[in-house]
Design goal:
- The complex is a heterodimer of chains A (319) and B (268).
- In chain A, 51% of the residues lie in helices and 15% in strands.
- Chain A is an alpha/beta fold and 319 residues long.
- Chain A is elongated, with a radius of gyration of 41 Å.
- Helix content of chain B is 81%, strand content 0%.
- Chain B is globular and about 90 Å long.
- Classes of the chains: A alpha/beta (319), B mainly alpha (268).
- At the A-B interface, helix 2, helix 3 and helix 5 of A face helix 2, helix 4, helix 6, helix 8 and helix 10 of B.
């Protein structure tokens, strides 16, 4: 060692200096880790709370537990018991236990429509005693988007079935109206035939005023028959279109349900975009209507547009 | 030069004959547009939006001192409120016309307001108040106004409410035979006649009149009234011992009413 002894003053006590440097570095790293752990709550007093879930679906270890929107703990353990239920243990910061009552309920929710799952613990009834470590609380799942769509579908489908039944039932009121229309049309045809017969047999020397009157009557009846005939032709087509539209709606309703099951995370975005598009369409329609209104009240279109209704809105003795 | 003038002459004449009218003041146009928007909303089945636009129309009309227009809009606001089942608001709008001491509103507006108030009161049912206000409507109408048949049908309903079935039936049958009453009021009259006959035990007549009302209501496509007609037919058929027909009418009435109710729920 003596051979390697350095005479330079700067290298004196080099070992000691290096040791102090390393010690300070290690201390700094240690303090950083300590600070991180303090921030992560490693030294915060936690209390275990338990609940039983019907299934472990959507529950994950480390999932945050929130109270009034603040994170107060996390899901620590999950295990399947002998009855097939899931025993879940969450740890909650002990200082918050006083705020939560023994009848509190843990609810599995989504943060936003497509956000991560989160456990929200309710406060419980004010008169109940505060929660103690090791207590067991209730658990429920919040209705998700899928459930909402299924609810809507369940409400719409019976309506569609009823309408379809109303349209298809031969004794139904819609079909009956159509039938009445046909009868009306047939009666008109008979009337025209009778008028033709009378017109043909009228004496040419008879009062000249009678013939124009009867001709006018025949024209009126023929016009009415044309309208009735058109309705007779168009109504069944309309009814068929209504039938097919309803079938399409039912198929769409089923498709929505399947789509939600398979790709629930994507659906809200699609719904959002669709809403956005609908909003834009609505504004466009309003704008177009304003333009049409302005044009219709301006020269030279004003003359060809019917006068707007100005009197009181209709209301009869039974409204 | 002469040829050019001759060519221009038809154009000058054409332009003179189609002179564009002077534009209305902006507020009048705004009021008309708002009124049209409200009516369109009502046609689209959106009474809440209709109420918003009618309220705007009223403010504009009042700023223009257009009392006749304001009276019409107040009647429309009352009609919309009645549709929204807010009868207190509806009566309040109508009272603003009827209780105006300065007599600034036209008689036809007061007549319409009186008639509509009477309809709402009969529905509640407040027979005494309805009778007073209906008498005012009859007095303003003098059996000459357009709504005289509607007033008569309402009078028949009021008579029924007071237990005067025979008089109600007689008046309703009289209106139902008048083509000038229009098919809606004829159907209403037939329904009133049928209800009176049902109360009087004249079941065969009631069956016939409910059936006639049903045919008219079907032609008009008035689903709520079709439901009422079918319910009436079901009741009368059951009283006549026609159990099968009663069951069938009852089923149809239930279908019509339930579909209507569900549709309303979905729309709301």
């Amino acid at each position: 060692m003596a051979l390697l002894e350095d005479k330079d003053e700067r290298f004196k006590n080099l070992f000691g200096k290096t040791a102090v440097f390393i010690l300070f570095a290690a201390l700094g790293i240690g303090l950083t880790f300590l600070w991180i752990e303090v921030k992560r709550g490693a030294f915060t007093a936690m209390s275990p709370i338990y609940f039983v879930a019907d299934s472990g679906l959507d529950l994950n270890e480390g999932m945050p537990v929130k109270f009034s929107g603040f994170k107060i703990g996390k899901l620590k353990t999950m295990s399947l018991d002998e009855r097939g239920h899931v025993q879940v243990g969450v740890s909650i910061e002990s200082k918050y236990l006083d705020l939560i009552r023994q009848d509190a309920v843990v609810t599995l929710k989504k943060e936003g429509v497509i956000g991560d799952g989160v456990l929200e613990i309710s406060k419980g009834a004010e008169e109940k005693p505060a929660l103690v470590p090791g207590s067991t609380v209730g658990f429920q799942r919040a209705s998700g988007l899928e459930q909402a769509v299924i609810d809507v579908k369940n409400r719409i489908t019976p309506i569609l079935d009823d309408i379809s039944q109303l349209l298809h039932d031969p004794q139904g009121d819609v079909r009956q109206t159509l039938s009445n229309l046909r009868e009306f049309s047939a009666d008109l045809r008979k009337t025209i035939e009778k008028l033709d017969h009378v017109l043909g047999s009228v004496d040419q020397n008879l009062n000249q005023e009678v013939v124009p009157l009867m001709r006018s009557l025949r024209t009126t009846a023929a016009n009415a028959e044309t309208i009735a005939g058109r309705l007779d032709k168009q109504l069944p087509e309309l009814l068929e279109k209504a039938d097919s539209s309803m079938e399409s709606m039912r198929v769409t309703s089923e498709s929505i349900r399947d789509a939600v099951k398979q790709s629930a995370p994507q659906l809200p975005e699609i719904v959002g975009e669709a809403n956005d598009a609908l909003g834009k369409t609505s504004r466009l329609v309003d704008d177009t209507q304003s333009v049409v209104d302005s044009l219709s009240s301006s020269w030279p279109f004003k003359g060809s547009v019917p006068e707007p209704e100005t009197g009181p809105v209709r209301m009869d003795s039974h409204d | 030069m002469t040829r050019l003038l001759l060519l221009l002459l038809p154009l000058l004449l054409a332009s003179c004959s189609t002179t564009p009218p002077s534009r209305l003041p902006a507020t009048v146009e705004q009021a008309r547009t708002s009124d049209s928007d409200a009516r369109r909303a009502l046609t689209d089945g959106d009474p809440v939006r209709a109420r918003k636009y009618f309220t705007k129309t009223l403010a504009l009309q009042q700023s223009l001192d257009d009392t006749a227009g304001a009276a019409t809009t107040m009647i429309n606001l009352a009609t919309v409120a009645h549709q929204l089942r807010d009868d207190e608001a509806a009566l309040s709008w109508l009272d603003r016309i009827l209780q105006e001491k300065a007599n600034i509103y036209p008689d036809d507006a007061r007549l319409t307001a009186a008639f509509r108030k009477a309809v709402i009161l009969v529905d509640k049912p407040l027979a005494a108040e309805a009778d007073t206000i209906l008498k005012l409507a009859e007095q303003l109408c003098e059996s000459k106004c357009e709504s005289r048949f509607s007033i008569s049908v309402l009078r028949a309903r009021l008579l029924m409410l007071s237990g005067e079935m025979k008089a109600a039936r007689s008046l309703a049958i009289e209106v139902s035979s008048q083509a000038a009453a229009g098919r809606e009021e004829q159907a209403n009259a037939l329904r009133v006649a049928a209800a009176a006959e049902e109360s009087m035990g004249l079941m065969t007549d009631a069956l016939q009149h409910y059936g006639s009302a049903l045919q008219l209501d079907k032609a008009l496509g008035l689903s709520s009234r079709i439901g009422d007609d079918l319910s009436g037919l079901a009741r009368v058929s059951a009283k006549l011992g026609h159990e099968r027909e009663a069951g069938e009418y009852s089923r149809r009435a239930h279908l019509v009413k339930e579909s209507r109710g569900r549709m309303s729920d979905v729309i709301q």
